[in-house]
Specification:
267 residues, 4-stranded antiparallel β-sheet, globular
């Protein structure tokens, strides 16, 4: 839910940028229209508040751990200065061990900050901070925009727990099938994902062909669990090339249209 609310907010603000005058009623109307399009029930306040609270607690946890590491770093710096002045090799060795442990903690926090809590895929903050600069691509490559087919049906008929498992399975499946240092997978919003192919690093000569193969393979798999005897799911996608300094908003418009075209072709 929280990811879809973020997406609705993003689309609303994007729409409002075209307006010279913005009134509260206009914002509400556009927001509600996108909520309907993404099938978000704004009347379900308990679910929305629960998701917002979980998101806040997640960020608070990272901030708290970062502050704790900063305190340790400050103390280690003071101790190192004294140890150097006193030529205390034992203290310097202990400080070095502390700093090595802190480096592990920092790497863990970076992963937490830039990962989607549910699926482990990259999140939009990572995309914005590492792949883009002021909304422009830093390198050439290809972008595939994925949307799960009939995901609302899965949630409504099998429950959100199964829906969450489907999202996690999809990311694991994509990572396995597209395993390559030049390929990055991120959860964009809800059941929407982005696959990025870095042109300079990629050994996959035809990303479009590869995505088609992955799509077809997933659609043939049959999943089962203790509660569900048989379950199949699939995704639709659009893929296009991008150049360095292309605007992400322009590219998303293109790839979104291609995804819906693919969805219609596979109905």
């Amino acid at each position: 839910m929280i990811n879809k609310l973020k997406e609705i907010t993003y689309l609303t603000i994007k729409d409002l940028k075209k307006q010279s005058i913005i009134l509260p009623g206009k914002y509400s109307k556009i927001f509600e229209n996108y909520a309907k399009k993404l099938k978000v029930n704004l009347d379900d306040e308990k679910v929305i508040l629960k998701d917002l609270q979980e998101d806040t607690e997640y960020v608070d946890k990272i901030v708290r751990q970062t502050n704790e590491n900063l305190i340790v770093l400050q103390e280690s710096t003071k101790n190192a200065k004294k140890a150097i002045q006193n030529k205390d090799e034992e203290s310097l060795s202990n400080i070095n061990n502390e700093l090595e442990e802190m480096q592990k903690q920092i790497k863990f926090l970076q992963k937490e900050l830039f990962s989607d809590p549910l699926t482990g895929a990259y999140n939009r903050k990572w995309f914005s901070d590492y792949y883009l600069e002021d909304g422009l691509f830093k390198n050439d490559g290809f972008i595939a925009f994925l949307d799960l087919n009939k995901f609302k049906f899965i949630n409504d008929n099998y429950g959100h727990v199964v829906g969450d498992q489907i999202l996690k399975y999809l990311v694991e499946f994509l990572q396995k099938e597209l395993g390559n240092p030049a390929v990055d997978i991120l959860r964009y919003a809800g059941d929407e994902f982005i696959v990025l192919f870095n042109k300079e690093k990629s050994t996959i000569l035809n990303p479009d062909k590869k995505m088609k193969e992955v799509q077809e393979k997933l659609s043939t798999l049959v999943l089962s669990s203790s509660k569900i005897e048989k379950l199949q799911f699939s995704f639709s996608y659009g893929i296009t090339a991008f150049k360095k300094e292309n605007n992400i908003d322009d590219i998303l418009v293109i790839v979104d249209k291609l995804m819906y075209k693919n969805k219609e072709e596979n109905r």
